[in-house]
Amino acid sequence: MPALRRRTAAFDARAGTPRSVPPCGAARTRPGVVASLAGAALALVLLVSGCAPGGTAEPSASRAASAGPGALTIRVPADAPTITEAAERVAEGGLILVSPGTYAESVLIDTPDVTLRGTDRNTVIIDGEGLRANGVQVIADGVRVENLTVRNHTFNGVLVTGMHDDNGPQAHNLDGYTKLDPQKFPPLERFSVSHVTASNNGLYGIYAFNSHDGVISDNYSSGSADSGFYVGQCQGCGILVSGNIAENNAIGYENANASDSVVVTGNRFSGNRVGATLISSYQEAFLPQQKVSFVGNVVTGNSSETSPAQAQGAFGLGIGIAGGHENLVSNNLISGNPAAGVQITNTEDIPAVGNRIVGNTFGGNGVDVADVAAARSSTTGTCVDPAAGLTLLPPALAAGCGTDAPSTGADPAQLPALAVPRGMSFLKVPAGPEQPSLDGDLTTVPPRLPASVTMPDLAAIPVPDAGLLASAGRR
Fold it and tell me: Domain locations in the chain?
């Protein structure tokens, strides 16, 4: 199978010019943003009618005055006609509470400790319309994004990043060659993305880059042309990825150069082209990727026909490790992946080193564990335990535990030959089912996020049942 590598996307130039169509009231744009003629025409209609899709009336003068600049809670559209305006006005530590409606805008949150929360996960929709780059862009510490849907963006549904300058948020792969400098841009600290549905986005559904001490939990992502969930470029990350569903993406979960204290547990990565990857990437800092705990997940049936194509053509893989070091892949259910349950390879001249694949339940894979690394960057120190009863390629992988001797990778042509279906446009992937909303009192301003994330006891996590989170997905 081809090596797993980064995708460089080229999109319509309009992706960099977000416009905001308010759900009610006058249209407005952020400084420097030029609205399209279609957007201007729609804005004129809205000004005449006084209401946009969603049908909520203009806020009263008294209500708007009580939720002016610096307000602790701003309701959209009752207090502010757009989420963008609410984000510009909300106080540090405040709450933006969004009522049902479709909001055609790209939201930037640059005020610390703000919570962006929808009142209904399935009907509060930030829609990129296939034109705007990002749905929600977080560049401030301590921000929560929860209980809403982000869809149809040419890059990312939700982007959380410490990389930003006067031109706005940045991430790797802007031109495919620039290596971003984390010394110039210190990492964002403390974040939470929870109960978010990310559908039909051109790169990543939910994307944390150069960020520390965060939680990505109870989200659903489908139709991503790169990966549904992505954690990249951090050391000592302190990030927990838990309770998420990824299906019908090119890759369900991707981890590039995110190392140490990243825990991925209790997720369902099923029905993608590739379930999950742990990779070293020369396009990001902090080589090599290392020491991620991937424990207690369901990684099944990754051979989706209703998904965008993976950039390097990979298909039918459960978990891919490319140049990763000392990762723990433990107590997962890895089944029904027609190429391989786990595939190990190199990233250019970076070998895979010391990865432990232990305590998992395998079944119905083309090959359970395969090492297809090139001879120039041979894999060393892989531990597959227990190896009895597993299909291994090459068979010598069974003797790998306890030794640092390099192994000779098999020819990828020895993997099962598959008829790889043609990928579809990310905008045409069928939408997933409705998802459960956040419980409790949604109007309360939450306390500040803690300085660090409490991680689960990995030793107490069993192999999950095949039905984990299945009721909320299609797979």
Answer: 106-472
| Fold type of domain 106-472 | Pectate Lyase C-like (2.160.20)
Q: Which residues contact 51 (CB under 8 A, 6 or more apart)?
A: 24, 25, 57, 58
Q: Among residues 252, 264, 253, 328, which one has the least CA distance to residue 290? A: 328
Using a 10 angstrom Cβ sphere, with 0-12 exposed, 13-18 middle and 19 or more buried, the burial of residue 447 is exposed
Element holding 144 (H helix, E strand)? strand 143-151
For residue 38, give both structure tokens.
């279609």
Rounded mean pLDDT for each run of 10 residues along the chain, 475 residues in total = 34 32 35 31 31 38 58 97 98 98 97 98 98 97 98 97 76 52 85 98 97 98 98 96 98 97 98 98 92 98 96 94 98 98 97 96 97 95 89 86 83 94 96 95 97 98 96 77
Q: Which tokens sit at 75?
A: 């309701």
| Polymer length of the chain | 475
Q: Please, is 304 exposed, middle or buried when counting C-beta atoms within 10 Å of its C-beta (0-12, 13-18, 19+)?
A: buried
Instruction: State the pLDDT at residue 172.
Output: 53
Dihedrals φ, ψ of 16, to 5°? Answer: -90, 5
Backbone angles phi, psi at 397, to 5 degrees: -60, -25
Query: pTM to 2 decimals?
Result: 0.86
Q: What angle do CA 63, 65, 66 make, to 5 degrees?
A: 65
Tokens standing for 449?
């996020």
Contact 138, 146 (CB under 8 A): no
